[in-house]
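Write out this protein's structure.
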Amino acid sequence: MEKELKKQKLDMLNGSIWNKLPVFALPIAATGILEQLFNASDIAIVGNFAQTDKTAAVAAVGANSPIIGLILNLFIGIALGANVVIANAVGRDDKQTVQKAVHTSMVVSVIGGVLVAIIGELIAEPLLTALNVPNDVLELALLYLRIYFLGMPVILLYNFEAAIFRSIGETKMPLIALTLSGILNVLLNLFFVIVLKMSVNGVATATVLANVVSAGILYIKLVKSDKYIKVEFKKLRIDGKVFAKIMQIGLPAGIQSAVFAVANIVIQGAINSLGTTVIAASSAAFNIEIIAYNVMNSFSQACTTFVGQNFGANKIGRCKKTLFLCLIEDAIASGTAILIVLITGKFLLSIFNNNPEVIEIGYTRLVIIFIAYIFSMLYEVMSGYLRGFGFSLVPAILTTVGVCVLRIIWINTVFTANRTFVTIMTAYPVSLATTAVLIFIALIIYRPSKRFANKGKEKA
């Protein structure tokens, strides 16, 4: 497998780290931003060209964001478990485990997608009703969500395929696949809404079809790959032992990510109670702020993968260097992204909806959320570091307390006493600061670099 390892475009086990982190992270950031543009283009196009109430159409798509985020975050976390298992196996030079993990991941993604689609169709209406979606938005929101659920098998397949590529340092291929499907998504959005006079059903259909293309491209590349991540149809099965390892790391990571979505569903319910204009403003702002979040989160994923491979190779010193470099480089990259978004924020908001009130409320959200990102960056990178060593449960538990529980308490106490949009948004910096402190304490207690320092001969 040594020859195959040399074919990797990014050698995480040897040489300098600082210059390789952005090479790995920034394509992930670009992929995440492009993925979010699927949703952003939906909102922008229905907000400008829908034949029905444009504000209601924007609100309908936005009202679904927390539900979709909950599901995707859960399975993306599980996919991250596959990433860690494969990365560890690569570091150990264990081709057999790599192959088993790759094929197990593919099967799990499809089965998971089918189950989510079936369950989602059954509970779609109760979910939206529980979120206090206004009556003038509910019908459109339900239509969008039902169509989106139908595409879950291919949506999850793409995310697992992307995790497979990233585990060996290949981050450009998922970006290329998503770029092509993203262009198709925008073109189909315009065709369905402007030419066929469709509304949210048109943009939802376009999103699903675009995801079919991105998943298909990566599947073909995996089948044709001459590397050790090559997919063979006859090998597609779930290996019990490998599946258990993936779930041991991935399920807590998925729960950790999903906790944010659970808390955001509660927050979305509070936002929905303030009316259609506030929903539209918050939705538009979310689709802009997520640009900076993807830049920030990409270094967390880089930290997990670099630490995962080097831990597998017993190069503990490189794991420690990865943590510190990720924190520094993430601060620089995220700060730059936030500055650009704040400068252009009002213009970007006007693309989604040119209502002055929507723009003002949306910009307020951007400012408060970006204050919270200071703490989010610390929390994300430290959690990624712990996951690389296989410590996934503790960050998940601490996130549940720091994010989910605290935000629910905030909405049911502070917001109840002062029902304003600013009060809702303040829950973000408060909860993320608390979570960052908790994760830092966990890092000090576990100190994985010291715990595993004597595991075999250090090669750092």
